[in-house]
């Protein structure tokens, strides 16, 4: 007696109209068929999943993320950055702050005692991180100041070549500071910032600038020299070390692997910053310029340079031993303390300019907040007000030009010269507002014209302003506007504010 053969129905019957034809599978063939089907599904998944991830990364993160996994990112062994997720599932890094920055300051035992007071203006013990790198150990009978950064001794560099006839071998040691700092293996580092022992950093503004950049990418941030003759000799596209420069962690990790070789390959280069720049060229990373880093490669009176600060946060000042005091009648350290007093009240606004007119008396007003105000006895165009007053000379030859920006000389007509006011005091008034007071500079005046007398009768000038929102530096740069509130006898009142739509500084 024979029985009809039993057949095994397709297990994927619901899909038969989409993928498979109607089939009858014999028991002897069922296992090979299922095996082939499983392999086909795995092959399909291996192609589809990566395509889905790259095509829709934000959704893919949601489908393939691990909710209980460690939210930390470790790069190159000893960089640890804590991250979280925002509501969309996108990684959200902790905002860069001062603890993410490590400083490498170059100095020597011979120079430190005369330069440490510059560092003490900005260094914050137990808060800022980094070291002063010395050529040798200080004398045992000399105690190291607690207000100074801790020191380290640079490694011996006698094995390296140096062939620059007019330079110093100390450039070799200084070039390696970034490498030696990196190799200390400090945790949670995003940026290495290099500077000299006479560099003054403005820390809040430095952090503000670095927050604009992704620290997981390779960045080399700084500025070149103000003097063309320096840029021609050294480089236009190099970060000058005295003004300070910042290197992101991933870039530092690559830099240290080739730095010693670069030092020998660029043996004829004068300075440490040139040697570091040579390495950057080999890696393929170019300088990202930030105009708030200042090399101060000038001689004489820095007034015109500082009063015409660009639209960028003030990050650093250098070479302050080589220029006159920034405030008249004061030594350089006391002058810097006065400027820093203003900076502490409103960091982002420090040295930022605003122009306006007093149309009742046809005066022009140029404010460089926290430093100086210029009053002109006529209506001066914004283009002229915006051009740097030439109160200084070039670094190398002490000449009046050339610089990397336009300059204008002080007028030869004494009745057309501006009357200068300098910061006397700064205070907070109300919530997120400041009041700065400026006193007229006492100097011999050679103009007896009737239009000049009212300017000389103005002894004080007050400027009110709201605290500058740091977010403004992530927007397209625009100088803020101002109004002359009143020009009563004795005091002169100016209010700085955001410009209105379609507003311009245009004389009638």
Query: What is the CATH architecture term of the largest domain?
Result: Alpha-Beta Complex
Major sheet: order of its strands? Answer: 16-17-18-22-23-24-26-25
Q: Ranges with pLDDT <50 over ≥5 residues?
A: 1-29, 56-90
Shape: globular
Q: How many H/I helical runs?
A: 13
Q: In the residues, how many domains can be counted? A: 3
CATH class of the largest domain: Alpha Beta
- Structural class label: alpha+beta
Mind explaining what this structure looks like?
The chain has 508 residues and is an alpha+beta fold. The protein folds into three domains: 8-62, no CATH class; 100-295, Spore Coat Polysaccharide Biosynthesis Protein SpsA, Chain A (Alpha-Beta Complex), CATH 3.90.550; 346-497, no CATH class. Helices cover 27% and strands 23% of the residues. It is built from 13 helices and 26 strands. The protein has helices at 27-55, 57-64, 109-122, 170-175, 177-182, 203-210, 228-233, 249-265, 272-283, 303-307, 332-345, 382-386, 453-457; strands at 8-9, 24-25, 72-75, 79-85, 91-93, 101-106, 129-134, 151-153, 191-196, 200-201, 220-222, 245-248, 288-289, 298-300, 316-317, 353-358, 363-368, 372-376, 388-389, 392-394, 407-408, 419-428, 433-440, 460-466, 481-486, 491-497. The strands form seven sheets. An eight-stranded mixed β-sheet has the order 16-17-18-22-23-24-26-25, with helices on one face. β17 (363-368) and β18 (372-376) form a beta hairpin. The longest helix has 29 residues, at 27-55. The model is unreliable at 1-29 and 56-90 (pLDDT under 50).
């Amino acid at each position: 007696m024979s029985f009809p053969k039993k057949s095994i129905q397709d297990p994927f019957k619901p899909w038969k109209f989409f993928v498979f034809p109607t089939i009858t599978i014999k028991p002897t063939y069922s296992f090979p068929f299922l095996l082939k089907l499983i392999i086909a599904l795995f092959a399909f998944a291996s192609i589809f999943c990566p395509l889905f991830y790259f095509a829709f990364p934000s959704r893919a993160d949601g489908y393939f993320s691990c909710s209980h996994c460690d939210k930390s990112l470790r790069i190159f062994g000893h960089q640890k950055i804590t991250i979280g997720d925002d509501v969309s599932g996108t990684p959200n890094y902790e905002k860069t702050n001062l603890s993410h920055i490590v400083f490498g300051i170059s100095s020597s035992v011979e120079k430190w005692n005369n330069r440490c007071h510059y560092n003490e203006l900005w260094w914050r013990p137990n808060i800022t991180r980094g070291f002063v790198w010395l050529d040798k150990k200080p004398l045992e009978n000399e105690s190291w100041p607690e207000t100074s950064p801790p020191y380290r001794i640079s490694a011996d560099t006698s094995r390296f070549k140096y062939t620059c006839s007019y330079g110093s071998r100390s450039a070799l040691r200084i070039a390696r500071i970034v490498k030696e700092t990196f190799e200390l293996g400090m945790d949670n580092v995003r940026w290495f910032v290099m500077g000299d022992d006479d560099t003054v950093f403005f820390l809040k503004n430095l952090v503000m600038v670095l927050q604009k950049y992704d620290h997981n990418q390779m960045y080399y941030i700084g500025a070149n020299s103000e003097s063309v003759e320096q840029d021609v000799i050294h480089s236009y596209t190099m970060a000058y070390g005295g003004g300070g420069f910042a290197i992101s962690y991933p870039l530092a990790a690559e830099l240290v692997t080739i730095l010693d070789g670069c030092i020998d390959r660029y043996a004829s280069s004068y300075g440490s910053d040139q040697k570091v720049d040579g390495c950057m060229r080999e890696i393929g990373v170019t300088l990202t310029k930030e105009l708030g880093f200042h090399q101060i490669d000038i001689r004489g009176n820095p007034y015109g340079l500082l009063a015409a600060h660009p639209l960028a946060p003030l990050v650093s000042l250098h070479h302050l031993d080589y220029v006159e005091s920034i405030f008249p009648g004061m030594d350089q350290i006391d002058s810097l303390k006065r400027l820093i007093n203003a900076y502490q009240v409103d960091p982002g606004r420090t040295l930022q300019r605003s122009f306006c007119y007093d149309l009742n008396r046809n005066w022009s007003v140029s404010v460089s907040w926290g430093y100086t105000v210029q009053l002109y006895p006529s209506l001066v165009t914004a283009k002229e007000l915006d051009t740097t007053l030439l109160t200084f000379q070039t670094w190398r030859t002490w000449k009046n030009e050339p610089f990397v920006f336009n300059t204008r000389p002080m007028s030869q007509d004494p009745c057309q010269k501006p009357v200068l006011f300098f910061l006397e005091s700064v205070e907070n008034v109300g919530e997120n507002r400041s009041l700065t007071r400026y006193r007229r500079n006492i100097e011999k005046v050679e103009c007896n014209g009737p239009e000049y007398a009212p300017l000389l009768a103005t002894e004080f000038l007050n400027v009110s302003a709201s605290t500058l929102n740091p977010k403004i530096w992530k927007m397209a740069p625009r100088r803020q506007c101002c109004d002359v509130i009143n020009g009563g006898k004795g005091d002169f009142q100016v209010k700085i504010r955001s410009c209105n739509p379609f507003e311009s500084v245009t004389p009638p």
